[in-house]
Amino acid sequence: MSKLKFCELKEHFNEEVVLKGFIDNLRDLQYVQFLVLRDRTGKIQVTIEKNDDNKELNEIVSNLTLESVVTVTGKLLENEKVKLNGMEVIPASIEVNSRSENELPINYKDKNNTLLDTRLDYRFLDLRNEKNILMFRVQSAFVQGMRDYLYENEFTEIHTPKLIAAASESGSDVFEVKYFENKAYLAQSPQFYKQMAMAAGFEKVFEVAPAFRAENSNTNRHTTEFTSFDLEFSYIKDFTEVMDLEEELLIAGLTKVKELYGEKIKEMFGEEIIIPTRPFPRIKLHDLYKELEKRYGYNIPTEDVGDMNAEAEKLTGRFAKEVYGHEFIFVTDYSAKKRAFYHMRKDGIPQGYDLIWKGMEITTGAQREHRYDVLKAQCDEKGLGKDVEFYLEFFKYGCPPHGGFALGIDRITMLMLGMPNLKETMFLFRGPNRITP
Q1: Under 8 Å CB-to-CB from 52, ≥6 apart: which residues?
Q2: CA–CA separation, 292 vs 311, rounded Å?
Q3: CATH class of the domain comprising 125-424
Q4: Domain ranges of the chain
Q5: What is 6-98's CATH topology?
Q6: Tens digits of per-residue pLDDT, 170-226?
């Protein structure tokens, strides 16, 4: 008999069932013993009376510890007196698969009583928290919803190298690694290789994979390694088509999450999953500056002119809610000095955008420059030279007009669930001061 998920047990009253899980609670009383078992879908009570018939079982339970892993085989009974879901299992056998040490180093059930860094030291225990388990199921559903949308629209999933010969994109903020007798770098993004796929005639591609940024930053929204959801597609008219596709993609992901976990998210995180309406509001950067000054008295600092900063993003989220009644807003017309060299320009203005959600940037997207001579000139302007010679080769033999964007899955999870820190929404966080476990 195979293991049943605990959430399915109500369909099996008066049947013999096999339960496999962690011991969530244990009470050894004078006349009876109670185990509460936990799997990723729920909890179930196991009741063992103390008598001669159960002597062997009683002895096993008396020597158990919390968080040990057991297999219980027994009969599932409906019992309205049992507070936990109105049911219990009367065991015929209990097998101890793995015994936990008596005292846990952290109380993973009470996040507020343990420092975040300590919880991260014992992440393998911290992840047992019910909210954490739900969080990663939500994250998985979000990615599934977006993947399904792209597959339905004939995108091809690709897997690009993370070891690269030249520092991609900016020529800075990369991790250098020893590669036999040479140097290599960890990829900041799959950008160059997505575009190679466009030159190869793939037309529509996406990738879900790690990306690396050697930024010595200790904010609640940055990390040195994150999961990036990237896509690129060909034969676009302009960058508004890229924004249109991102709207549809996000709606697909959020709809999947709401269908599967909307009520559970509301119950455990107190957050409502709102499916956005189309089109998302769109505003040019210089018009946004005027609105932020007029409404909130905010002036962008001189060093950030032509771009955004965290405070401007936060106020932009507020502006979107107050003026458009929307959680999302596209901001366009950034300065060419603040954008990557491969963004197409029109009258000197990069043909791209940032997408702000709940007051935080989640995407930079654009139409890419696909014309070799123009791209080379923009590359030379940024002083990149030999670093991108291999990349420029992609565009010498014809390349369709194309565009794309990337989403940080960990940051989106943080915003979706109202979490205060990116460290909590990553399976294992990596930062300037953390590379274990």
Answers
A1: none
A2: 11
A3: alpha beta
A4: 6-98, 125-424
A5: OB fold (Dihydrolipoamide Acetyltransferase, E2P) (2.40.50)
A6: 545 899 999 999 999 999 999 999 999 999 999 999 999 999 999 887 888 889 999
